Amino acid sequence: MRCIYRVWHLPVFLLIVSLIHEAQAQKPPQPPHFIKKMDKEVELQFGPINRFVLECIAHAEPLPLYTWFKNEIKLENNTAGISLISNLEHSQLEFSSPAPEHEGFYHCEAENGLGKAKSTVVHVTSQISKPAKGTSAPVFIRAPESELPSVGNTAKFECIAEGKPDPQIVWTKNGEVLPGETGNRLVLHNIGPGDVANYACNASNIAGYEYKDVYLNILTLPATITEGPRDQVVSKGSNVTIKCKTEGFPLPTISWFLNDEPIQGSDRVKINNISGDLSIVNATVEDAGKYMCEAKNHGTMSKVGSLVVKSKTEIISGPSDLYVEVFSSVTMNCTVVSDLSEELTVIWKKNNVDLGQSIYGENQRISQDEKYSLVIKNITLADEGTYTCVAFTDSTASNPATDSGLLIVSGIPPVLAPLPPIPHQLEGGDINLECEVTQGYQSPQISWFKNGLPITSENNVKINHGTLSIKKSVPMNSGEYSCKAVNDWGTDIKGTKIWIRKRTQILSQPVYVEYSAGNGVMLDCNVEVDASLRNSLNINWFKGEEMLRVSTVSLVPLENSVMYDVEEEEETRFMMHQNNSLQILNLQEEDLGFYKCQASTELEQVLRSEPSQIYLAANFPYWIIILILVCLIAVMILIICVWRVRKRNRGKGYYGVKDVEKNGGKHNKSDIYYNTDDVDSIMNEQDNNPNTSTPKFTPKTIRHLSNTEKSVGSVSSLIENEDERLARGMDEDGSFRERYSD
Q: How far apart are alpha carbons 150 and 216 in whole angstroms?
């Protein structure tokens, strides 16, 4: 029974071992890093009773090899008093009998093919040091963490420590210092296999240090074939390349198979280890078959393609029916396989007519490339037709390979630029809408529509070369406008809306109200506004240039009655009704002045009414009338005085009574003519009016007569009688026309 039991356990044991090895084999590779931390200082006490152990444990794939160092010198297994115990899992230094010569600095290193990790440095000493007063060893606030980015990405390590004095940061890679990396962050861009390693941050000052190592690995990706073999038909004797482009990490290995048999490289068949491509030189019929590319890392992927080798002339990819627009370019394929030992000829026909040798020029609009394809640039409507590729060799000239395709060329349907949105407009302005054709061949016909109906040039609407113009717009011009472009290849329509609003008007006329203390006043503000602008209408009242704070009065229906609801923030004597009228209660002298209402809408900023006035009445100024009368009388008196002085200064006239003036200024023979001019003799005084016998006396004549003796003739009596007669005439008829004096 015991023997049977052992035999039964043997395959189980082998299965378990196999599973363990398989699991280990499936682990992704990883650089080493330490998972157990050693003390920075260990007190050295002598004697076997004080034995101690330093242990290093690192994680890595594949498993690492360990090496110990004392004072940066590699320790050998035969070091006195120290036993080195290492395996694939960990490594130990056992101090079985500590002695003074064991004092020093110890560290271990773990290394595999992906990197090397360096442990904390342990100071084995008989005297434990203490930090100086006022100092403290660094402590990590944020320690670096292992990173696992994908290929091509960025890795970031962060290391922040505090201490007194401030610690200095040093970064290492695989135990070697990275020059210039002394900041809190280590950034690695465009990660590749060369960046996979062990990284460590060391923060130190005079009081001590803090150390942590981590690893950077690349995220493993299973093998993927991004471009594999494709089906190909080639000519006999041609060179063939079969693609196998892969991705993955670790980098996949590539294997090739022909008809499920591994392909071995030769002088004619070669495998590129970098790109993975398979190349065949001078292909033969025997090279035909199914080719498989297999990519493998911790995952596997494969793709298959067939290869056909032709020795007979054959068009394997000819022209197909194409529908293209003018001005574009097109390539019509004609891929031909044949026996390359014979000369191959390929020509093109259009509508069964040879295109001729002109198509072979490099600068021609229609040309043939090195793969026999026909290239047509800047296509026109005339290029439409049936194109035929004809291929033959010397042995197949009587039975050439042919393939045809129909080329249909269309114009370009019109495309219009969007019409800009038109904001609401006030009447009277001009509007221009351009119907811009961004593409189209042949040129499209442009037409305009309003609310779906065609528009013609009339009244204030004009259409000129596709541009719609509205002059001095009115509300009747409002509507949905659309521009339509049409040619043989299509139609395009773009539209916009135009809304013309009537201008706001204040219809109320100014009023002039006499001030009466304590009474109320109502000032109207009747505003005519477009219905669409009514919601944006805003009315304000001004006294002079100062806006009034008014309360709003609204009508609130209550069953069968109506009451006023006054909305106000504080008590005020100014109230504005729903019809925008301003009511002023309890008039006071401070209310005297000019009042205007101001209307504004979303389209009109300021519109003010003519000013109304509340004025203070005054008593009629009668004293002004009296003053005016006094001034008029004074002026009249002044005029009369001036007139008399001027008359008197003339020195000529008649003595007569008032009836002379009443008879139109005529005088008779009884009037006395006088003259103030003095002449030498009375005999020399001449009558200016020979037709009258009116007596003429001058001062000199009168003096002469007065000096004459009265007894001489009747001269004296004449004078005396004359004086009496003059006195009587003045008593009877009033004053003389002129007064005489010497």
A: 11
3-state secondary structure of 240: strand
One-letter amino acid at 711 equals: S
**Tens digits of per-residue pLDDT, 96-113?**
889 999 999 999 999 998
Tokens of 381: 């409507």
Strand order in the sheet with 197-205: 176-177, 168-173, 197-205, 208-216
Q: Which candidate, 65, 155, 73, places its Cα nearest to that of 109?
A: 65
Q: Are 42 and 123 in contact (CB under 8 A)?
A: yes
- Name the CATH architecture for the domain at 314-410: Sandwich (2.60)
Compute φ and ψ for 457, nearest 5 degrees. -70, 115
Element (H, E) at 246: strand 245-249
Contact 444, 494 (CB under 8 A): no
Q: How far is it, in rounded angstroms, from Cα 407 to Cα 386? A: 6
Contact 600, 607 (CB under 8 A): yes
Q: Is residue 243 within 8 Å of residue 231, measured between CB atoms?
A: no
CATH class, domain 505-615, is mainly beta
Q: CA nearest 460: which of 502, 496, 432? A: 432
Q: What's the mean per-residue pLDDT of the chain?
A: 82
Domain 221-310, second-level architecture = Sandwich (2.60)
CA distance 85 to 93: 6
* Cβ atoms of residues 523 and 554 within 8 Å: no
User: What pLDDT band is residue 675 in, cutting at 50, 70 and 90?
Assistant: low
pLDDT per residue over 472-507, tens digit each? 999 999 999 999 999 999 999 999 999 999 999 999
- The separation between CA 740 and the C-alpha centre of its own chain, rounded to angstroms, equals 107
User: In sequence order, which residues have a C-beta less than 8 Å from that of residue 601 and are 6 or more positions away?
Assistant: 504, 529, 530, 533, 536, 537, 538
What is the 8-class DSSP label of residue 719?
H
Q: Give residue 514's Cα distance to chain centre.
A: 59
For residues 474-501, b (16+ Cβ closer than 10 Å) or e, as one string? eeebbbebbbbbbbebeebebeeebebb
Q: Which of 742, 546, 732 is nearest to 656 (CA)?
A: 732
Domain ranges of the chain: 27-129, 221-310, 314-410, 413-501, 505-615, 651-733
Give me 118's structure tokens: 């360096």
Tell me the mean pLDDT in the region 75-88. Answer: 82
**Distance between CA 244 and CA 229 in Å, rounded?**
6
The mean pLDDT of 177-195, rounded to a whole number, is: 91
Question: Is residue 321 within 8 Å of 311, Cβ to Cβ?
Answer: no
**Ordered DSSP codes for 10-68:** HHHHHHHHHHHHHHHHHSPPEEEEESSPPPSEEE---SGGG-EEEEE-EEEESPPEEEE
642 vs 635: CA distance, rounded Å: 11
pTM above threshold 0.85 = no
Residues 358-380 as b or e (16 or more Cβ within 10 Å = b): ebeeeeeebbbeeebbbebeebe
Q: Taking the CB of residue 540, how many other CB atoms lie within 10 A of it?
A: 18
Q: Under a CB-based contact definition with an 8 Å cutoff, are residues 229 and 271 in contact?
A: no
> How many angstroms separate the CA atoms of 618 and 623, rounded?
14
Structure tokens at 455: 């528009």
The residue among 114, 64, 298, 63 whose CA lies nearest residue 217 is 114
- Which listed CATH number (2.60.40.10, 3.40.50.300, 3.40.50.720, 3.40.50.1450) goes with 413-501? 2.60.40.10
Respond yes or no on whether the N-terminal peptide bond of residue 444 is cis (omega within 30° of 0).
no
Please tell me the least confidently modeled range out of 45-49, 702-706, 738-742: 738-742
Beta bridge mates, 486: 445, 491
- 27-129 is classed CATH 3.30.1490.120: no
Q: Rounded to an integer, what distance in angstroms lies between the CA atom of residue 467 and that of residue 51?
A: 103
Torsional sign, CA 183, 189, 193, 194 = negative
- DSSP annotation string for 335-385: EEE-BTTS--EEEEEETTEE--GGGG-TTSSEEE-TTS-EEE-S--GGG-E
